[in-house]
Design goal:
Structural class of chain A: alpha/beta
Distance between the termini of chain A: 36 Å
CATH superfamily of the largest domain in chain A: Dihydrodipicolinate Reductase, domain 2
Number of strands of chain A: 15
Helix content of chain A: 25-40%
CATH topology of the largest domain in chain A: Dihydrodipicolinate Reductase, domain 2
Oligomer: homotetramer
Chain lengths: ~350, ~350, ~350, ~350
């Protein structure tokens, strides 16, 4: 399509993240136009359409796939539908933005990626953190050689509050639901592939999470193809807010990034010097990143250039997550080569 | 008008700040609709209209004032037209948002405010910094008594680069053009009125500024009605970026705010520990504040509530600026009561 | 004397600051030996002598001046005795370290300096802050041209608690007692002389300070010989501790220094992110500076080199302080040339 | 001995750390008196004695053990002599301060501790970091329940430069030489015992370290008896200086500590905002901690109270270090219960 033409987009799924993308596409992404919204819960689609002036709402996303005016879809439906819809959308010739993860099952991921490749459409996976100014700056400095040869990666990633137990049960577990973002960060920041992991963890935040078969606190050791090593620490509950810090250390220095706060005030009084907590959670913390990833997707469609987070980038962190899960269960380091579709 | 109805807005002036407001009104202020743009340079109005999907562009702002569908105008024209257009818009029954300053002449300011009062329309002046999250937080803490009784106010306000000399010549001088924002901040943060000032300054950045009859570096001492004192330091050129810090000190503590940066990275290497410069200038630094002031204006119109920065708030900093100018010229402290229309 | 020989020192005055110097000389200044302590309150001298293993204690400081084994005296007696003892010590051929200020009266200061010059002995004044690593680093960077040509100096200097009212009454007032350190800093950091001042202030901390004829809160504007301007803000009571910050801004950048804290911890919890208050007061904050100034004095005596803070450095801030006092009283800017002995 | 009596101390070993302790004992520990210095290199002992006014220097430390006037010894000799000298000093009835580690061999450690217990003398091990104000503050806050129940410990500990290869060869390896301090920190900060470790690492700094059979970069996962988990990352070479940070995260918050710097300056210029590197290495970073540990030892002797870092505190980190070494070599998690004397 012409680079200056608006991309007509159909959004599939009008839940929390779907509405977020609709708002951004409608107001903050000049090259995009939301043509239709589909949600199995029709009133959800209708409400979002009304709020953002979208002309069409439907309960059946096939309507979007069949519409020749729609060039691209943004998939925000339940995780277990991602792989299937990717295949269907690819078959319909639509470019695809899909929320992470593609699936928890490698075979299904590979089917989806295969369908995309056969159809020659674009696929971008929603690893939004890559578009955050802090992490982007760290990546740029690492890539520019500012820290020399990389030796150690350190990621702290803690949520402010655990998800509902019902979600935990279908989430795929902490490694595939939460740490997966950090695995993506690890690949993004270092430009190297993870080859092996060792995962430790436990249930410290809420015993119900344990009863649901998951853990809520974890430390994962990473081995990289370039010889470096890394460590990720996760918690489902940091009472002070969303804690999102990374640090890359190398032969010539170290680059790190602090948390973002709602304001830069400092209060000094008799009890100490006080500042604001980090921004509460991903909606607040990553607004600009969500917008930037959509702009990048729309530009890739407009300019017919590769998307910045492709199918393989969607697959690789799942492999790391499956290895971490196995490592935790078997209490031993697990090579990624042990994980297969 | 009904609270859930969109406010039809006419924007007068499509220069840099005008385009900024048009973009925000079009994309970030849900309650607003830009109905028309006027600019004496018609192509400027037309280009902005095309870019943001505004249906009408004209060289004659009277068209906007005459249009019964337009409820409010946003005045972004040259400073010397502000007072006159305010009167005309008030006479036409339009609610008014006007960029600062209303005028450099108190008599004309008073005529404009008088016209607004007689017409019973709303007037909001564009002191955007009041809507910045940092300064807002400081104000809230001061108002909440977090620092007890206020003793000292300290403002550092330095631009990254001086304006063109042609602009300097018509700007009214540093106190009415640049420090005026800090005078507004002083009133806003303390909730008290300035009663007297003492201004020191000089030409240190560029001799051409001196040749144009202005200075580029200043320190202003403030006396407040509540007994507190304050100091403002200004420079037209901080090579490290836009330096915008305030501090309020009192009997129970101190609250201050740091600069905002484009990212929160830290690079440590053999030569030290390094971070990003402050955001470059007002466009970058105050984007959210510009949006928030427009939302506040639109909400005041929708809900028929007072605007948060009224005519008197537009007048008072001009009085302080005139007193500062006189203080600088006469090399003595000047009481605000010496300044009259 | 030989550079490797210990300097025998007599300390005159064993009050708080005297004991501090005795401890440092006895334990932290390798080139010094405290030979005797004099205090009009003999038990004070005896107690200090016993504590730090000093062989002699006396109520009569003339004993020290007459002792040929003593090469230098450290004067820590009441301020109104400084000028006289300097003259007596100079006449006795002793090198002299004297606490600030020399006197509040310029004529007496000049007599003291004259006596020192005639005797050819060394004189160092106790402006300890010059030896603080933070301020030293700022000075070095300014002197090295890191900020280009200096435009603005900003000093914040706030005590944690006011002195006793009895002390306030004989202190010479805030400008000669407290701000005098900042006037010295202004000269030290900029390498330029102050030529004119404007002082604002008030009684905000304690009405008793006002009843004693003094003020407790002040802002002083400074004009420098090099064309730059500056501002100092003072309070006698910062509830969060000793607030000692400086900032020098110039054509190529800005260098500033933050407060020191007892530790570098950060606590993040649901109410915010919290750190330690600044070190409480000058004893805690400037310990290393007090030691370094004594080392510098002893080395100047050993090596027969100029002292780093000489008589003129002791006189100049008094002139600035007298000008500030006059400015405050007469409510007008005062040139230093108006002040005469 | 009487609480107000000075403790006569013999120092065994006058190398770098020995001289450091001698200086502190001579000048900064009021309750101590260095009675004699022993070093197999007699001139080293003599030079230190001359420098700090110590009356006796000898090549034979048995002279010190035999001297009834000496109540305590400070052992700073080569690591492989520690256990033996502890036993000899205990047999001689001397209280003992011994540099870490006691030994690399658990059987010899147990012999040394047994000898100390039989003799009823005091033993303090030189884990100096426990006396650092930053770590002490973190420990106090954890102990006070400020972070609730502990979930995650994170330690970053990086040296500015690797030791000489000759030292590496006899050091016992990174886990027993360098990480041992972090293992001690882990026990100190959490108040819990480590039960299992997993160690990853490699040779990234200098291939010669690999040729010497050691690694220079490591990440160690810790499991604690209280259910928490932790991670330590180490490097032998951080070009920006000694990087010593800890963080304890729990159910109610997080407490962390930053690095110390030689000064608190900030330089802002066109290229960014710059501050000082961390203090270079342990001598600079831990001066106050070294003094505080000596004061604590001397007070324990004077007051006949337990030492704050006892024999078991010296033994436990060696067990963790041996487990880490085995984990690294066998590429699997290792329980501390697998390690035996």
């Amino acid at each position: 399509m012409a680079a200056n033409q608006k991309v007509n987009i159909g959004v599939i799924g009008a839940g929390r993240i779907g509405k977020l993308h609709i708002e951004h596409l409608a107001t903050r992404v000049p090259g995009a136009q939301v043509a239709a919204i589909a949600d199995v819960v029709l009133p959800a689609a209708q409400a979002a359409a009304a709020q953002f002036g979208v002309p069409r709402a439907t309960a059946d996303y096939f309507e979007l796939l069949k519409d020749p005016e729609i060039q691209a879809v943004v998939i925000c439906s339940a995780t277990d539908t991602h792989a299937r819809i990717i295949q269907e959308a690819a078959a319909a010739g639509k470019h695809i933005f899909c929320e992470k993860p593609i699936d928890h099952d490698l075979a299904r991921i590979d089917q989806a990626i295969g369908a995309v490749e056969r159809a020659g459409v674009k696929l971008q996976i929603g690893f939004n953190r890559r578009f955050d100014p802090n992490f982007r700056r760290v990546r740029e400095m690492v890539a520019a050689g500012e820290i020399g040869e990389m030796h150690i990666l350190r990621i702290t990633s803690r949520d402010p509050a655990p998800p509902p137990i019902e979600y935990v049960k279908v989430s795929g577990g902490i490694f595939l639901d939460m740490t997966i973002h950090d695995f993506d960060m690890a690949r993004y920041l270092t430009g190297s592939e993870v080859t092996e992991v060792y995962a430790a963890g436990g249930v410290m935040v809420d015993p119900k999470i344990g009863e649901a078969g998951d853990i809520d606190t974890a430390i994962v050791t990473l081995y990289f193809a370039n010889g470096a090593i890394g460590t990720i620490d996760n918690s489902r509950k940091a009472v002070y807010g969303y804690d999102q810090r990374v640090e890359v250390f190398g032969s010539a220095g170290m680059v790190a990034t602090a948390n973002n706060t709602p304001d830069a005030h400092t209060l000094a009084n008799a009890s100490g010097v006080h500042g604001a907590c980090p921004l509460y959670f991903f909606i607040e913390r990553y607004t600009e990143a969500y917008i930037a990833e959509m702009r990048a997707f729309v530009e890739a469609v407009q300019n017919d250039t590769p998307t910045p987070v492709n199918g393989n980038d969607g697959r690789a962190p799942v492999v790391i997550g499956l290895a971490a899960l196995q490592s935790y269960r078997e209490h031993r380091p697990v090579k990624l080569s042990e994980i297969s579709a």
